[in-house]
Design a protein that fits this description.
The protein is of the alpha+beta class and 241 residues long. The protein is 26% helix and 33% strand.
Length: 241
Amino acid sequence: MTIPQQPDGLLLVDKPANCTSHDVVDYIRHRFKFKKVGHCGTLDPMATGLLMLVLGRATKVQDLLMSEDKEYAGTLRLGATTTTQDAEGEVTETKPVPPLTELELTRAFDKFKGDFYQTPPMVSALKKDGVPLYKLARQGKVVEREPRLVHVYSYRLTRIAPPTVDFVIKCSKGFYVRTYCHDIGQALGCGGHLAALRRTRSGNFTLDHAVTRDDLEAIGSAADLQPHILGLADISRIRRQ
């Protein structure tokens, strides 16, 4: 039996909904018999879009790639606050959505632009005394979280159809879009949560050359996957563009 050679490089995957980032890593590892596979930035199960997988020696630049700015397309649903700040949580409060104008929405979004401090949600992979916050949240515990300095470079409102608002945002690493939606909902006085999310860009890497789950299912071997993998030189070139 021939053992597949471990490739070194970056595989861009268009993650489907209803699976974790770790699920995708496990799938690639077992499907193609690779030993070293990691991902650059977690996407929540409900989120779709760009998931960057580092293979072989490329795992050494994992932290560098994770530090890149991100771009997302999202949907804010107003009028309901949830336990997870997104559509997967339980609704904790509902309020009527006032007849908001585009100017009023823009003013609320403008409050969260540039540098500001964001408090990470309880349902997150951040750790408190070595325990992930989401595990504490499952036990009904709420602990103090240190606000973190984040940055929103730009945003666009792409569709306004209350109670939903579609937007595109470019932000720094470590940014929680669901907390962003929660905070904007609070600023508007009616509450809100993240209803949908798709990562479209990380640094200079985009979905243009990402493979889907169907693509991966159709690829028969590690050798057939190779044309889809960006080599170490390609990674460096694209980052400098």
